[in-house]
Design a protein that fits this description.
- The complex is a heterodimer.
- Chain A is of the alpha+beta class.
- The radius of gyration of chain B is 17 Å and the shape is elongated.
- The two termini of chain B are 23 Å apart.
- The chains are: A alpha+beta, B mainly alpha.
């Protein structure tokens, strides 16, 4: 008897549906597990290599800042992505503090109340926050098994922020007088970079914070002294 | 019975995982409604009931498939550990999975029982007689 004449009973039809459904669910379960695993692995093994630079333009011959000087803080973040998922740049937050030598030495002790204190053993260092920025950045890709770099720079002049500029100038003057260069004053950098994992949609349930965290890789570097 | 139990458990495990992690499931979506997951479980339970021998067997299947479903969902949630590149405690992931999937697990047994009864009723209506031509258990069945 050929198949053309075969008419399945309702029970045979149900077993066929069950077999097909089983195959579908096994396939979906395996694919979901692999997809989930690749996302978690991307979270675990991707990392960034930051490079920071501080420069002072239009300084006096002594190296001290003038009223026309500018302070340039820049960084580049190279993201290494050994995972099988493509990542996308999304958001960056950056803070930079200069060590406040005049506050520490008592020449400007009043700034201690607004500076961030960092206690290291018996010594306390004071840091003045020069840059505190966060912004969305173009969502350029970081290819799977590859890397990509994002660079940003921030410029502070007396025209853009006179009070902050004057403090930095006061601090760097101390560096010039003690060590002959404004570059002698140490800086502390902190950066946070958020990346999105391609292929993971935005969760529709805003209360499911863990789904947002799953979609977003957060990389940090440096000591965050606070705002 | 084992085949149906595994089928119900597999479906429950996948549905739980997909409800908890819809954005990394396949197909990846922004969210899964609880009602949608419930309808899927009911449909599968009706199919299971259609192929179940009797109410007693269906009841046992419903409870055992819950354990199978939890095992499947936990295994899926612990799948990153199988890559060898993720360090985490498997039992922590399993507990997390049970917590997040609790609403689904809570309704799974009643849904399987209810759907199973509907499936049994449909079979009595459209394909009366013992499953697979075998003599069905007479427990919980009429004379």
């Amino acid at each position: 008897m050929g198949l053309a004449g075969w008419r399945p009973t309702p029970e045979q039809g149900a077993w066929t549906v069950l077999a097909v459904a089983t195959a579908v669910f096994v396939t979906l379960a395996a694919a979901s597990s692999a997809n989930y695993a690749s996302v978690v692995v991307a979270h675990t093994i991707s990392y960034m290599v930051p490079r920071f630079a501080i420069s002072y333009d239009q300084t006096a011959p002594s190296g001290a800042l003038t009223l026309n000087s500018s302070i340039n803080a820049s960084f580049s973040l190279r993201v290494e992505n050994p995972s099988s998922r493509t990542l996308r740049f999304f958001f960056v937050a950056y803070s930079a503090w200069i060590e406040d030598w005049p506050a520490r030495d008592g020449y400007n002790a009043t700034r201690r109340t607004t500076d961030k204190a960092f206690v290291n053993g018996s010594q306390t260092a004071y840091f003045f926050q020069v840059v505190a920025e966060s912004r969305n950045i173009p969502q350029d890709p970081v290819p799977a098994h590859g890397n990509a770099t994002v660079s940003l720079s921030f410029r502070l002049t007396r025209a853009t922020d006179p009070s902050r500029f004057d403090v930095v100038r006061n601090i760097t003057d101390e560096g010039v007088s003690r060590n002959g260069s404004a570059d002698a004053v140490p800086w502390n950098h902190w950066v946070r970079l958020d990346l999105l994992i391609e292929g993971v949609p935005e969760p529709s349930n805003l209360e499911a914070g863990y789904l947002r965290d799953l979609r977003r890789i957060e990389l940090q570097w440096g000591l965050n002294l606070g705002f | 019975m084992a085949v149906l139990t595994l089928f119900l458990g597999l479906t429950l495990g996948y549905t739980t995982f997909y409800s908890v992690f819809p954005t990394v499931g396949v197909p990846a979506v922004g969210g899964v409604s609880f009602v949608g997951a419930l309808l899927l479980l009911i449909g599968v339970a009706i199919l299971g009931g259609f192929l179940t021998q009797d109410v007693y067997t269906g009841t046992v299947q419903s409870f055992v498939s819950l354990a199978v479903g939890i095992a499947v969902a936990s295994l899926m949630m612990a799948s990153p550990l199988l890559t060898g590149m993720v360090q985490a405690r498997a039992d922590d992931l399993a507990v997390l999975g049970i917590q997040l999937g609790f609403p689904i697990y809570l309704v799974a047994v009643p849904v399987n029982l209810f759907g199973g009864l509907i499936g049994l009723g449909l079979r009595e209506r459209f394909a009366p007689g013992p499953v697979g031509g075998r003599a069905a258990s007479s427990r919980f069945r009429g004379p």
